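A favour between colleagues. Tell me how you read the following sequence-structure pair.

===
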Amino acid sequence: MADFADKYETLLLHRERSRLHVTLNRPEVKNALNPTLIGELRSVFETLRGRRDIKVVILRGAGGTFCAGADLKSMEQSFTEKPKPGERDPIAIWNRGFGTFLEMVNTSPQVVVAAVEGYAIAGGFGILCVSDVAICTEEAGFAMSETAIGIVPAQIAPFVAARIGVPQTRHLTLTAARFKGAEAYRLGIAHYLVKDSAALDAKLEELLKQIDRCAPIANALTKQVVMKVGTEPLSKVLDFAADKFAEARRGPEASEGLRAFAEKRPPRWAVE
């Protein structure tokens, strides 16, 4: 992929037609988040913002684990600088940077799919909760564990609350509860629950074939509309949605989709 970095220190990238597989690749520490990994993920999603030839991004973890949260050793090394008088605490600036990354994933024009096995803890749990669609195995483990070590899930909590509601988020954050795949599915954190890694691969391929049927620009515009819900008055959301509908209807995808429907054939984007 010439428009992405040829090599990443902490990521594995694989392009498959309109699919981009992004694998967190620090298996020796259960893919814990350090500044390099977060920076490389940000770089990938910055590049993806302007891309329409990539329809879906699949996030996974190497070595059978999604992401075990922050690398606490590297985090502590980053927190030695003291705030200067009248300036914002460097820790707050660092923490807010992770929120900026989560915003990028949350608003990515691509469909973001999280395939979770092993663990999705703390920051890894946050990444899961900004995916559009999530699959998890029965034995996958989840937790918002920050309060158990005396810190705050500051940047992930708003995204978790948007996914499962404030009452459930209060429960998970204030108890640092640990739970498995069935509870993640019940709460709506994951959309599909599968038995094991083999079933995860099968369900992922089934899901990707469903996404193949959808037009990429229409998906991106639809995601913009859905993300407006609850953030603005309904009348403004409906005005925005009407503009997005018009944008799509006057675009090439709608012309191709309607022609394909009339001709009883799949649209071009579905048969790459």
